[in-house]
Amino acid sequence: MSDLRIGIVGVGAMGADHAERIVRRISGARLVAVSDPDTARAEELAVRLSGGGPAGGSAAAGAGAAGGAVRVIGDPLELVGAREVDAVILASPGFAHAEQLFACLEHGKPVLCEKPLTMDAASSLQVVEAEHKLGKPLIQVGFMRRFDPEYAALKQLLDSGELGRPLLLHNVHRNKANGPGFRSEMIVRDSMVHEVDVARWLFGSEISRITVHAPKPTGAVPDGVLDPQFAVFELANGAMADVEVFVNFQVGYEVRCEAVAERGSATIGLGSGVVTRAAGHWGGAVPEDFRVRFDLAYDIEVQRWIDAVGRGEIDGPSAWDGYAAAAVCEAGIASLNSGQPVAVDLADRRTVLG
Ligand code: ISE
Q1: Which atom of ligand 1 is nearest to the CA of 294?
Q2: The GFO/IDH/MocA-like oxidoreductase domain covers which part of the protein (predicted)?
């Protein structure tokens, strides 16, 4: 079978990481096109991953690691519609997703969309409905924690029933730093959204109510930004989850969680890799960012997505999962503003998906 030809929209940190991954580590796929408002950045990447100099306007040609040229296409919607692109990775900012997702659906192109699916619940629901009308799943959402071997093992353990019924989930999610433009609502929509998905997925239940609190912020953020945040999720099955999200922690990237069930607890993300003793200290390294911590998860996620696309399927979080997370985050932002618990307004799944 011939390689799936991939186009990537947005080649900032995540998109560039996926581009490298497709070219160097993923089998059955080839990077053929990239698009980014920063054309110089896209050109540089295309040249580097094509393994040669630019040839013919904005196209980069040469024998790259995956043996082909990577074309730079200025207009992301043109990339989505391009004949040489079989499937798309959307790594553009969330505000651009809705239009780009609709274009993917219109052209019948499978798409791996980084979170958030869209900026609000209403537009996410429209995406779910539009995909449903096509009668086949084309959208997979980039909640990569589901592919992390530790998270996957935790899910398996909880599903086995060995620990009894899950009661509580404690999550910690810390980033080293984010720019001053990373506002309070982005901490919910772009960061906490991961734990929203983790809680729904691990406990197999929707989140029905959310409260987001914020202590006096760290001095590392501009006035008005609420960082860290502390949220409580109430799930429809009676379980509860809490999450600390702190995106300017200064130290490094830390993601861990502990599930508490009737007959035991299980913790992942302790980061017990290599422990060194040197210069009067002992310990391990704190990853710099999510690309390091979840490197393997991203590889597994993308490889499984490519394999699934070959079968005409998805193999991971669906558009519905993206919509459900968007609905929780919308309620979370309202709670952050009001200081009150906010009920999640979620459409009835059976009504929407039949
Ligand atoms: C980023 O977009 C991610 O997805 C990271 O996993 C998360 O830790 C970070 O806060 C987000 O900005």
Answers
A1: 6
A2: 151-266
